[in-house]
Design brief:
The complex is a heterodimer.
Chain A: E1 5-9, H1 18-21, H2 23-31, E2 40-45, H3 52-56, H4 62-71, H5 95-99, H6 111-123, E3 127-131, H7 144-163, E4 169-174, H8 180-190, E5 196-202, H9 215-224, E6 228-231, H10 247-268, H11 271-274, E7 280-283, H12 288-301, H13 315-319, E8 323-325, H14 335-344, H15 347-350, E9 351-352, H16 366-369, H17 376-391
Chain B: E1 3-8, E2 17-23, E3 25-32, E4 35-40, E5 55-63, E6 69-81, E7 88-90, E8 108-112, E9 115-119
Antiparallel strand pairs in B: 1-9, 2-3, 3-4, 5-6, 6-7, 8-9
The chains are: A alpha/beta, B mainly beta.
Chain lengths: 402, 120
């Protein structure tokens, strides 16, 4: 029960804190008794670019490290890394993005640990799977060796500076997927590090996931019991998406588009049959794409089984065994449509909640907890227990809601 | 209905606002273009602090007489945007501009002498 208060306050963006910014989220957490059960966020972010100087120091190649360090001195001109055009803050309407600059770290640990734990507690989250932000576009870098170098440096930095220091923060590490041999070595070298609960392929890229070059990586992941996730993003340089002229368009389509391609290739080429114990998770495409693709592939499969002879079941039956993250969860006015989507993907066991915080379209746990068609056990599965089983996390809540 | 003190009239400059918390009520009180407006500070979307974001005029696509597109500009309607996700509200009505069936609860503002009060 919240204490009743009486106050008049002014806005002061220079006193930004996650606790203050998310005060209403904490109210929701207390009202819904989140302290009583586990909540796991399978997709949250930090801005690794704020730590590039430190991250670059982990680059193994002395030549590439020199280029990276030099790039820090020419901000605003041609970059060492690629990026994307975008205006996620909607012209400054998302004030937390500017407010973060005023955030003051509390102790000796990395600032990202302080900030992450603060917003996790404010929302009622026990564990978060942390991902980078600008690196989501690194799969589109024209130089494959730069993707490999930064991926290795970032993973080493993240393991040492963040994951080793804070048990409530875990990650599915970036795979340099444009170089299959280095993708394999990344799993081999980092798979046993503390806090590494799986590996991630950033979806915007143009390598087919069914290429034979990746088979030994999938085999190693399966052997290690580490899930593989595909984290969506957009590319305004994609030939089709390049015809869109507003962020709403490229975002709405792009975050589905690349995962639809990878999912189609994954299923049609029989990878679930070849790697039956390898768990896959599809992140940040929302849910409507899965509902659509299941029906579309099943419909065509019945006429063209010869195109996918490895399949012993309909495509949707394989998809129904995969994991899907919730955010950005589309909530239609008619909730029966959402309920049908939940049924299609076996949400009670396969759906895992994600916030995507601090990005512009983040979700709170209440997006699941407040759904009228879910019973309490289903809510708790989706909010935490499903992910805990996947990541081998303790079910005991550890958060401290302010 | 209890009245809560918001501010001295002279303390509120054009575009200023205060967030008034009184028991279960959390209200954003705006002073803009000579008028006061007060709405619930809980966004209809995800419960964010709806009244704590920026004030911004509506965006307009400019079309020519032949229906070709010319560019964008700002219109005359003032909105405030929830800082969590950008849901925009019409300052004069509290309606959510993406779906005007959705509205923030409106509160009455009273100016008495040099003081401004909101009725909760």
């Amino acid at each position: 029960m919240d204490m009743l208060r009486n106050e008049v306050r002014q806005l002061n963006p220079e006193q930004y804190s996650e606790t203050k910014s998310l005060e209403h989220a904490s109210q929701q957490a207390r009202q819904r008794n989140y302290q009583d059960f586990l909540i796991v966020d399978v997709d949250a972010h930090h801005y690794e670019s704020e730590s590039y100087k430190d991250v670059f120091s982990y680059i193994e190649s002395p030549v590439i490290k020199m280029e990276a360090m030099d790039s820090m001195r020419r901000a605003g001109r041609s970059g060492f890394l690629n990026n994307q055009v975008g205006y996620q803050s909607i012209g400054g309407r998302m004030t937390r993005h500017a407010g973060r600059a005023h955030y003051k770290a509390k102790g000796k640990q990395h600032r990202d640990i302080d900030m992450t734990l603060e917003w996790m507690d404010a929302m009622g989250v026990d564990y978060s799977c942390l991902f980078p932000t600008p690196m989501l576009f690194l799969g589109l870098h024209p130089q494959v060796e730069i993707e490999v170098a930064l991926c290795r440096a970032y993973n080493a930095w993240l393991c040492e500076r963040i994951l080793a220091e804070e048990p409530r923060i875990v990650s599915m590490l970036y795979l340099p997927f444009n170089d299959p041999e280095w993708a394999y070595r990344t799993v081999r070298d980092f798979g046993d590090k503390k806090g590494v609960v799986g590996f991630m392929v950033t979806a915007p890229r143009y390598k087919p996931v069914h290429d034979n070059a990746y088979i030994k990586t999938y085999a190693l992941l399966e052997e290690m019991g580490k899930p593989l996730c595909f984290h969506a993003a957009y590319s305004w340089d994609d030939r089709g998406l390049a015809t869109t002229n507003r962020f709403i368009s490229v975002h709405s389509l792009g975050f589905m588009w690349f995962n639809m391609i990878h999912m189609t290739n994954w299923v049609i080429n029989g990878l679930p049959e070849r790697f039956p114990k390898l768990k896959t998770m599809w992140i940040e495409s929302g849910l409507t794409w899965a509902y659509c693709l299941m029906q579309r592939l099943d419909h065509t499969y019945m006429m063209r089984t010869s195109d996918c002879p490895q399949l012993k079941r309909k495509p949707s039956e394989y998809m129904r065994e995969m994991f899907f993250s919730t955010q950005p969860m589309e909530v239609p006015d008619d909730l029966s449509i959402l309920e049908a989507t939940f049924k299609m993907i076996n949400a009670e066991t396969q759906l895992v909640w994600s916030s995507d915080y601090p990005h512009w379209d983040f979700d709170l746990p209440s997006i699941i907890y407040d759904l009228p068609f879910l019973k309490e056990p289903a809510k708790r599965n989706i909010l935490g227990a499903n992910a805990a089983r996947l990541f081998n996390l303790d079910l005991k809540p550890v958060k401290k809601i302010p | 209905m209890p009245e809560c003190f918001v501010a001295k009239v002279s303390d509120l400059k054009d575009g200023d606002r205060r967030i008034v918390v009184s028991g279960q009520h959390e209200v954003g009180v705006f002073f803009k273009d000579g008028a006061y407006y007060a709405y619930s500070n809980y966004c209809v979307h995800a419960g964010g602090p709806a009244c704590e974001g920026i004030l911004v005029n509506n965006v307009v696509d400019v079309l020519n007489a032949d229906r070709t597109y010319e560019g964008q500009t700002f219109g005359d309607n003032v909105h405030f945007a929830c800082p969590w996700h950008g849901y925009e509200y019409d300052l004069k009505t509290g309606e959510c501009v993406g779906d005007r069936k959705l509205k923030l609860r409106k509160y009455n503002v009273i100016k008495r002498g040099d003081d401004v009060f909101v009725v909760v």
